[in-house]
Amino acid sequence: MKIVETTNAVENLNIENINKSPSGVSIIWREIMRDKLALISLVFLLLVTTLVYGISLFLDLDQIVKIDLFAIHEPPSSDFWLGTDYGGRDVFGQLIIGTRNSLTIGFLVTLMTGLIGVTFGLTAGFFGGHIDNIMMRVLDFFIILPFLMIVIVFVSIVPNYSIISFSLIMTAFLWMGIARLIRSKALQERELDYAQASKTLGTPRWKIMFGQVLPNVSSLIIVTMTLNLAANIGLESGLSFLGFGFPEETPSLGTLLSYARNPQTLENRWWIWMPAAILIFLLMLSVRNVGEALKRATDARQRRG
Amino acid sequence: MWKFIVRRLLIALPQILLLSVLVFLMAQMMPGDALSGLIDPNIDPAAIEAQRERLGLNDPWHIQYVDWITGVVTEGDLGRSFRYKMDVTEIIGQRLVNTFWLSLVTLIFTYLIAIPLGITSGRYNDTFRDQMITGYTYVGFATPLFIFALVALWILGFQFGWFPTGGSVSPGLTPGTFEYFLSRLHHLILPALSMALITTVNTVQYLRSEIIDTKQKDFIITARAKGASESRVYNRHILRNSLLPIAAFFGFEITGLIGGTIFVETIYSYPGMGQLFIESINLRDYSVVIAVVLLLGIASILGALLSDIILSLVDPRIRIK
Fold first, then answer.
1. H or E segment to which residue B200 belongs
2. pTM of the model
3. Residue B41 lies in a domain
4. Would strands B86-87 and B80-81 be described as parallel, antiparallel, or unpaired?
5. Which family does it belong to (chain B) (predicted)?
6. Which residues span the domain enclosing B310?
7. A114-124 pLDDT per residue, tens
8. Do A238 and B282 touch (CB under 8 A)?
9. B76 occurs within a structural domain
10. In 10 A of CB B201, how many CB atoms?
11. Which residues 194-253 of B have a C-beta within 8 angstroms of A?
């Protein structure tokens, strides 16, 4: 009788004193608030994103990319804040549109690689055995390919080249990193009690995979995709810099940098390429800062908050 | 051990085969073929057609593939460049040497930077020194190589004039002399250093976490308990365990170097494989493009193979079953 009373007391105590475990969103929020660098980065990212998408609604794209032979290589002035390029086009307008295009393709490629990578990784990890073996050999092959060269070749031979085909080509050779990560996580998850129990109860495999394992690896997916976003923005600008990304009529941060391949522009007209370079650097740095804060939030041992 | 090497080879060979099929299919998708560079508009179309038939250009793709790959393997026949009117192998030769030197100097710089920084950062973790080094790796991760190379060229090449802004050697020097060697080195330093400073951050971070991990292991506590001096603990016990995997990674670095040389050679107009690749693709000299992709693709497959084998020698845990 005595014993029962004490347990009751303990239970009452528990209910009163122990809060519910904090939700994922609030952990992430707390982690970002604790890390001033991540907070500044997040604000900066939101600001840049709203600004470029907002301003570009009011900018006349045709006006910006129209060649004006009377205004070639103007230095910065009140008319052209960052001067003009060799076609007399306003660099500042190109910077706004370019940032928007670079961000858009970054998000697009990250989402598509995430989708393919997660599906591939979950399938390989969850089924295991021969399926896993074969899928991993395929993945190994894709990983070993010299990414930059293959993408450049495809970009130059695809007929009717467009933004869509550019992002598809990038996606085709970039899904492996996240797939490998998710696969090794799924291999662990499927051995856990909840997955085994579901299997015993006869839940269909795809339901366990996407309804139960997927939510449990979602934090990993979010962190990886954030870090991938930074990398993809860099890759896009790199490819455009070499001339195998966005065509010049569609400005991006990389096409602005590609003007610096002309030694004259590199040496004497830094206002054309330097802002784009700084912007790419700041964007990648802040996306990474946010990503690192997210990473800490998903791992209780590393949390600061 | 031998079992592992054989198994690893059995993975690498199909990879090379698959790569050659992919490269061949890419070549098929490219406009033009072996004849289009040679064709004179005055030749009768029927004669061209006969020639195409004779060369097997009208065969289905798998037969053409077998013809092509036999030529590549048995005679090293990679076709002719219609821009240079030379055999592709001849053009690639000189460029390959240049890229080899660039990669070698880059690798040397990479390890020269990574090892002291990684050791300092791992040994004195969470001190001011470590925070500086971690800060550098953090920024390095966020900087695309080509932007760093551009800025380095702008500041050190154009503004200060300390380094040449293009080429692989100053004109007018005779090969073999000491001046020639110095000039080549002078042309190499900036491209190699800018590539190394960015790619090394991976190795620094890896070394740092490896050392921090090893520091807390039992055998290190034992070594200390035996009274080994701090420098002996680090130099003999920890480094031996942490440096070997780093040394083995250099095979994996090849894939990264290939991507890096494309940017760096374009920016510094250094006449290597990367620059040849970009030039040829812009001029639609596709036989050169195909040869470069095939060669460098094989190089990165072999690099990974080498690294895996070295790693398995060093660390028996990772041998695949």
1. helix B178-215
2. 0.85
3. no
4. antiparallel
5. Belongs to the binding-protein-dependent transport system permease family.
6. 88-318
7. 999 999 999 99
8. no
9. no
10. 23
11. none
